[in-house]
Amino acid sequence: MRLGVLFSGGKDSCYALYKAQKTDEVACLISVISKNKESYMFHTPNISLTKLQAEAIGIPLIQKSTEGRKEDELKDLKSAIRDAIGTHKIEGIVTGAIESVYQAKRVQKICNELNIWCFNPLWMKDQKELLHELVENGFHIIITGIFAYPLDEKWLGRKIDEKVIDELAVLEEKYQMNPAGEGGEIETTVIDAPFFKKRVEIIESDIKAEGNSGVLVIKKAKLVSK
């Protein structure tokens, strides 16, 4: 089956892509760039980097912008998926949804309307198990957004490794925080993965943070040989 992957450049969409490639043909990536930093549907930190990531992966990318107004942004997503059907002949959509019923139901509705399949390979996966699998499979992931107590700017730019996973597990125990950030506590950016033909090297970045909210803004990056 030819699939399109809803692609944010974060760990969940990248791992969903990795899973989908094992069983089907991924014909394209689809990124929706929201002008609303608090979008209900879409990952926003460093979303513009998806173009470079798609080049690193070697899969065509369809990008669509949206104002990010609740529910209206779904029309832009549907338009992007319709473009993927027309251009790349996809028969299904892959998402990185884990627990978000809000997102999963809306993508499923769009797929039903367009008469294509919807595949959520990470659905209801244990979040700590997910993080361990990412590290074990050679994903290089950095934290580029923090949006919950007790996280602070010291977390921004940290690579997710076993030490970080252990720290996140402690925060889950103490503060009921989702360790993989499924509640919006953290956002991530993947700079290398098993299916990347080149890796992303960050040249220039800037931290914008206040209290328990902040982002690592990647201002300049390039692809380098692995």
Textual characterization of the structure:
The protein has 226 residues and is of the alpha/beta class. It has 2 domains: 2-119, HUPs (Rossmann fold), CATH 3.40.50.620; 127-225, putative n-type atp pyrophosphatase, domain 2. Helices cover 33% and strands 30% of the residues. It contains 6 helices and 9 strands; from the N terminus they run βαβαβαβαβαβαβββ. The protein has helices spanning 11-21, 50-57, 72-88, 101-114, 127-136, 162-175; strands at residues 2-6, 25-34, 61-66, 92-94, 117-119, 140-147, 186-192, 198-210, 213-225. The strands form 2 sheets. A 5-stranded parallel sheet has the order 3-2-1-4-5, with helices on both faces. β4 (92-94), α4 and β5 form a beta-alpha-beta unit. 39% of the residues are buried.
Please give a handful of descriptors for the protein shown.
226 residues; 2 domains; alpha/beta; Rossmann fold; putative n-type atp pyrophosphatase, domain 2
Domain count: the total is 2
Terminal CA distance: 30 Å
CATH topology of the largest domain: Rossmann fold
Main β sheet profile: 5 strands, parallel
What characteristic shape results from the CA principal axes?
A: globular
Number of helices: 6
What strand order characterises the main sheet? 3-2-1-4-5
Short account of what is shown:
The chain folds into 2 domains: 2-119, 3-Layer(aba) Sandwich (Rossmann fold), CATH 3.40.50; 127-225, Alpha-Beta Complex (putative n-type atp pyrophosphatase, domain 2). It has 226 residues and is α/β, with parallel strands linked by helices. The chain is globular and about 45 Å long.
